[in-house]
Amino acid sequence: MNPTDSPKEYGEYVKKKAPNSPILKDCFNAFWVGGLVCCIGQLIFFFCKYKGLDETSCSTVVSISLIALAIFLSAINVFNRIGKFAGAGTIVPITGFANSIVSPAMEYKSEGYVMGVGAKMFTVAGPVLVYGISASVIVGLLACLFL
Amino acid sequence: MDYFQSIDWMIMLRCFIVGGIICVIGQILIDKTKLTSARILVLFVTVGAVLGGLGIYKYLIDFAGCGATVPLTGFGANLAKGAIEGVQEQGLLGAFIGGLKACSGGIAAAIFFGYIASLVAKPKIKKQ
Lengths: 147, 128
Fold this sequence. Notes:
Chain A is mainly alpha-helical. Chain A contains eight helices and no strands. Chain B is mostly helical.
């Protein structure tokens, strides 16, 4: 494989041929960053457990802490840089959900606080909630029938 | 430090590997298909809810801890788990209450902190 000069040319070359090496690199970055995010969560989990919280509360604290962290990093524009490097490593964990809420909210601030921030917040999070909640209701209804 | 002694490093390792693998699945989907990240998130939540509803996902959580709960599949599984627990406690009503109840902390935190952050932070795109 011949590496070409500009990243754009390289990207086109990659699309044409079977993209082996970038996928491997992307996957490697996604793997260790994603794993690290989960491990940060696990450390918070152990800390809550050490403090005597029950497991359900621990998980909730983990979610809230990681969401707060991701939103803070998004607000100071650091998250996007990590995201560019790590790809799915930051999108797939709950941090990606948090980022998907805050980045359109920041972007559309100029359109006002109701239809700008308030509405655009849910450009990505909305579908996630729609499908997640609908699936959970279906699961609940099935559980009603079969349990 | 008592806290550091309370850490189970075996779970840490499994958490890293499982969490990493779930992210790699997402990365492969992004690279190999034309799915946008929004669709990936929706897909992962739905898959998580299905696996949670079938009762498969809890084995992964037992095995990997936060490696399974932190990715969005864990969010979906938590919704499904909440719905099932809701049904066990309150019957049909629980199917509608349980899911959101289980995830309410995360959702409320994301909306609240997200709103505050958007008020405080400067937008990265210039106005007008």
